[in-house]
Amino acid sequence: MIARIETLVLAAALAVAAAILTPYASAETQPPADCTVPEDLIQDEPTLPATAARLQAKQPLVIAAIGGSSTVGGAAGGGDAAYPHQLELALSKRYPGISITVLNKGAPSEVARQMLDRFEHDLLESHATLVLWEVGVADAVQGTDRDEFADTLQQGLTWLREHQMEVMLIDMQFSPNTAAVIDFDPYLDTLHQIGNLSQTYVFRRYDIMKYWSDNDVFHFTDAPKEERRARAAKVYTCLGARLADAIAYGTR
To answer: Along the 252 residues of the chain, how does pLDDT read in single tens digits?
Structure first.
């Protein structure tokens, strides 16, 4: 009975995490006119020299996004609505004439260890120059041991660099509704500490989404079920645009 209750609680927490992207906005598919953020939310010291070299030489660039449910983009119906495809569109506009492909290697509700276990199959075959590793949501939901989480992140970053892939970490999503049931702070702190120690660019998705919430760009609150998909698509479009800003900064 206890195991059954724990399973139900975990399922409910995962459902809450998956529902983070339910912003209050119009049901149109276009993003808000202004979902930009302050420069200090984008700028970070580590650079992306291999990615920069390919862009400067106008050579084809492959980026692989590996992560959990929000990489899949299930809240917006997945596929082209997910942020990896929106990033591809944003980069193609920013760098016309260069072939840029962003591969979506998301898998729902995976913790960091499960993603790491997929690296060899999903990333080696991609021949990606840059890997976006979106990680931490499921670990926070499931209460992964923080030392284990940190060790997995470090192992993953080491593996990527050994295989000549640049990497950008993407931290958690923000929603005030989840604060009561999921404690993201320890995992955010751990992820950013690993980023600092390993000199890895961390895309501050949590702070960016909080900025949007605080400034009435998006209100991350409950919304009618029939409107959630279109509203989530807006957020993914904006995240794709801001990730393009981050890559442009990292390859300046």
So the answer is: 433 334 434 444 444 454 455 444 433 345 566 899 999 999 888 899 999 999 999 999 999 999 999 999 877 777 889 999 999 999 999 999 999 999 999 999 999 999 999 999 999 989 999 999 999 999 999 999 999 999 999 999 999 999 999 999 999 999 888 867 899 999 999 999 999 999 999 999 999 999 998 998 987 776 677 677 878 889 999 999 999 999 999 998
Domain ranges of the chain: 2-250
Query: Alpha helices, DSSP H only, in 73-145?
Result: 83-94, 112-118, 137-142
Find the Cα–Cα–Cα–Cα dihedral 14, 157, 153, 45, rounded to 10°.
Answer: -90
Amino acid at 156: G
> Rounded to whole angstroms, how far apart are CA atoms 175 and 179?
7
CB-side exposure of 90: number of CA atoms within 13 Å? 21
E strands of 95-209, at which residues?
A: 100-106, 130-134, 166-170, 201-203
Q: How far apart are the first and last CA of the chain?
A: 56
What is the dihedral angle through the alpha carbons of 133, 138, 142, 143, rounded to the nearest 10 degrees?
50
Tell me which DSSP letter residue 77 carries. Answer: T
pTM above 0.85, yes or no: yes
> Which superfamily does 2-250 belong to?
SGNH hydrolase (3.40.50.1110)
CA 28 to chain CA centroid, Å, is 23
